[in-house]
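Progress report, Aim 2. The chain analyzed during this reporting quarter is listed below.
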Amino acid sequence: MVVFIAVCLAAVAASLYALSTSLQALEARRAPTSERLRASLLARLVRRPLWLAGAVAGILAWPLQAVALSFGSVALVQPALGFGLVVLLVLGVLVLHERIGSREVGGVAAISVGVAILGFAAPAATGTFTATGTWFVALAVGVVGPAPFLLRAAGGRGGLPTSVAAGLGWAWVGLGTSLLDDALADRRLLLVLAWGAGVLVASYGALLSEMTSLQAWRATRAIPVAFGLEMALPAALAPLLTHTRPPHVTAYVLGLLLACGGAAVLGSSRAVAAPLTAP
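Predicted structure tokens for the chain:
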């Protein structure tokens, strides 16, 4: 029952994240390309009502993700965020009248079956992070936050590097949120504030990278990269960063591969990308 609640909460959060990304991407694509990976891009977008509506949806989604992580492990909740792609597919079909083919059906089925398997095979809870795991997440947050500015300095303004940066950023938002949950459960106020700040920094870097990637690359290429990393990395790293191991390793790996493979297939669909690129 607890696993079911975690998946349901993650699905609702994923729906809000999908709505957020859709609304924000439409405005980002209208912004000047000269502002890629610059703070001025977000400064411009924050003045757009449609973009702000997307921001509100994303802000509402994050507490639901945090609650989902309090009920289920990061190895289950993060892959379940792939249901956001299903929401984009529904928007593409119902609102923009895109067609569904075997790719879309296969992607939805793979995500659904993969998450169902993870519900059985993943740890019931994330478990306590090791000291090394905690420091690894903390140090990585310090990298993914300023990643857009590091990429700009290195000339990496293209679709692939910015999509990778977005995926890494959102993956670390998930891991940081899990550690924030732990600090809240232990009533350690200073750690709550520290991880809250870390999640905020990672979110800023991920958002700026994501908006740039949707400017620089077709959505059908940006989505699979960003979503795949956001879903796969926390789930794959969780056994290495925490004291908890999946009780059914083979099924766990199979479920993770199915969920992430389905996201890659579904994310490359025109019907899914349409809500992010509609005029």
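The chain has one domain: 2-277. Residues 2-277 form one domain. These observations will guide the mutagenesis work planned for the next reporting period.
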